[in-house]
């Protein structure tokens, strides 16, 4: 399906209205997974023309996404990744875990951004960051699309490494997201040390329900609830 390439429109607007000189794009991956960290990439690109074919990582084939990520890591002005572990997600809840991962990524950049373009409609960063949220920013904004692709490829590689010791779960294919293979392995083997134990998938696994952790920071999480039924990775 054809798609419009991302632009620098939002970044130019931020620069003009706020005086920001360094604008970072921030995107996450792993929010709806049953296993593995949530990963956030912060990227700075400036206003240069991006590599051909840049768009939201979910619109790219794995082969194209991997090749593009390698290009982007050389092309961007700067980028950094931050992660929140399954244990931190269980303890803090997803919103706080996302903020922790994002702050880790932003703090790891060699220069502090003056403004941030954040994919989605919810600002999970807040003060002291100056944030502009953009729905489908990973499709429409160059700097967010770049962060989206890098985050996806790097987390997928991380999950493939974790899956080497847990081959039955198919992490190399599903990256810790719900899938028939993943569900079947959970029913027989139970959660690995990389699983989120406050997630609702355990409600459907009577043999392993005793492992479920109560979330210390209750929150409505549509993706987590959807993860029990849908398969998206």
From TrEMBL:
<feature type="binding site">
    <location>
        <position position="28"/>
    </location>
    <ligand>
        <name>a divalent metal cation</name>
    </ligand>
</feature>
<dbReference type="InterPro" id="IPR024567">
    <property type="entry name" value="RNase_HII/HIII_dom"/>
</dbReference>
<dbReference type="InterPro" id="IPR001352">
    <property type="entry name" value="RNase_HII/HIII"/>
</dbReference>
<keyword id="KW-0540">Nuclease</keyword>
<keyword id="KW-0963">Cytoplasm</keyword>
<dbReference type="Pfam" id="PF01351">
    <property type="entry name" value="RNase_HII"/>
</dbReference>
<keyword id="KW-0378">Hydrolase</keyword>
<feature type="binding site">
    <location>
        <position position="119"/>
    </location>
    <ligand>
        <name>a divalent metal cation</name>
    </ligand>
</feature>
<feature type="domain" description="RNase H type-2">
    <location>
        <begin position="21"/>
        <end position="219"/>
    </location>
</feature>
<keyword id="KW-0255">Endonuclease</keyword>
<dbReference type="InterPro" id="IPR012337">
    <property type="entry name" value="RNaseH-like_sf"/>
</dbReference>
<comment type="similarity">
    <text>Belongs to the RNase HII family.</text>
</comment>
<protein>
    <recommendedName>
        <fullName>Ribonuclease HII</fullName>
        <ecNumber>3.1.26.4</ecNumber>
    </recommendedName>
</protein>
<comment type="function">
    <text>Endonuclease that specifically degrades the RNA of RNA-DNA hybrids.</text>
</comment>
<dbReference type="InterPro" id="IPR036397">
    <property type="entry name" value="RNaseH_sf"/>
</dbReference>
<keyword id="KW-0479">Metal-binding</keyword>
<dbReference type="InterPro" id="IPR022898">
    <property type="entry name" value="RNase_HII"/>
</dbReference>
<keyword id="KW-0464">Manganese</keyword>
<feature type="binding site">
    <location>
        <position position="27"/>
    </location>
    <ligand>
        <name>a divalent metal cation</name>
    </ligand>
</feature>
